[in-house]
Amino acid sequence: MPTKPKITSAMVERLKAPAEGQVDYFDKQYPGLVLRVSCGGRKTWCYVYRIKGKQRRLKLDIYPVMSVAEAHDAWRKSRDLVLAGRDPVEEHKQVRPATNFRDVFEEWMLRDQAKNKSQKVVRGYFERDVLPRWQDLAISTIGKRDCLAVIEAVADRGKVTAARRLHGYLHRLFKWAIGRDIVSTNPLTGVDKPGEEIKRDRVLNDGELVKVWNAAERMGWPYGPLFQLLTLTGARRDEIGRLRWTEIDDNTIKLSGIRTKNGEQHSIPLSTVARAVLDKLARIADSEFVFTTNGKVAVSDWGNAKITLDDFAVLKEHWRIHDLRRTVSTGMNELGTDPHIVEAVLGHTIKGVAGVYNRAKYQAAKRAALEAWGAHVMALVEGRASGKVLPMRGKA
Question: Can you state the angle between helices 206-219 and 359-381, rounded to 10 degrees?
Fold first, then answer.
């Protein structure tokens, strides 16, 4: 049964899906503007009107893609067409947005992926493997076989994990396009991802760790000390790569939630060795970034940096930059650090009461753990027995 409230943003957020069917909410201030809430939870804006004695319904868009304010604007435009004797449904058919794949992809990135911290990675997948094939095709003509051809081409290069992720991105894009009434079906529905996800467990041994450290020493500014800090802190690549001077305070790196993967604040105590690496760095005048070549943006050429490091280190087994983080984790555990302290050092979410109340207490234990780890790394580099120096335990 239709209801006629004043539709506001707060009201729309509070609306619950009916147990079955759908409910139409007519905005009493905007005659004919309807928000239809279905039992599946979808909220759709429509405009109901009469023209030439016939009642018609124009689907505008879904909420929250179209906000309340945008729905009001769409209502005004549609109402003006009716007052001019023109049918909004017919007008809408003539001005449907372009539906070639490139345009749909760009709109998807803007509206669905804008808050995805990995949006650059997503764009890279499409620009490398999808857009060269599909960018000028009408998205409605792309079928299951086309999708399989793109995904399997990636898998055939030995990139099974990448192929699985591309499957996921494409599936999400088509699902979003259905919600926007751009396509009617998702060609990947019922299509399994190729292969199996490969879980990486590569950990550098002591000899490899020494080679990487010495190679970083030879590389010099800016990536050499950057790789050394990754080795000493166990931080994620971009947490150190995009480090700002203002994030270093009281011998601690302090990261806000927008700089971490889980969206939570994270502090990384600097060991004596890590502090020594930072103290040697030159500071480019007026630049906020610790690692930068032009003072304007943080370094980002990780591919070439890794190639250079490999040229110096020459490890027999392939490894990735993220493996340094796993190596730090494994190494601290082997030194006797309590597992929950290792998790805190890495910035993983700590569940339960401890995650809420023990943050401050963990700081001392985290500092002791990283100090012990730094001493262990330098003992290896200098050819001394590390002595398995144990960090503070238990009381954190």
Answer: 90
Are the CB atoms for 229 and 240 separated by under 8 Å? yes
Q: Which of 104, 114, 125, 103 is nearest to 169 (CA)?
A: 125
Strands 33-38 and 54-63: unpaired
206-381 CATH choice from 1.10.10.10, 3.40.50.720, 3.40.50.920, 1.10.443.10: 1.10.443.10
Query: Which residue in this structure is represented by tokens 């340094």?
Result: 324
- Encode the chain (396 residues) as per-residue pLDDT tens digits: 455 678 888 888 888 888 888 899 999 899 999 999 988 788 889 999 999 889 999 988 888 878 899 999 999 999 999 999 999 888 776 555 557 899 899 999 999 998 887 888 899 999 999 999 998 888 988 999 999 999 999 988 888 889 999 999 999 999 999 988 888 899 999 999 998 766 678 999 999 999 999 999 999 999 999 999 999 999 999 999 999 999 999 899 999 988 998 888 999 999 999 999 999 998 888 899 999 998 999 998 888 899 899 999 999 888 989 999 999 999 999 999 999 899 999 998 766 545 555 555 588 999 999 999 999 999 999 998 655 544 544 444
Whether this model's pTM surpasses 0.90: no
CA distance 202 to 333: 15
Q: Mapping DSSP to helix (H, G, I), strand (E, B) and coil, where does residue 244 land? A: strand
Report the alpha-carbon distance of residue 302 to residue 299 in Å, rounded. Answer: 8
Helix (H) or strand (E) holding 60, with range, is: strand 54-63
The partner residues of 289 in beta bridges, in order of sequence, read 244
Sequence spans of domains, the chain? 9-94, 101-179, 206-381
CATH number of 9-94: 3.30.160.390
- Choose which CATH entry (2.40.128, 1.10.150, 2.40.30, 1.10.10) describes domain 101-179: 1.10.150
Distance CA 202, CA 238 (A): 20
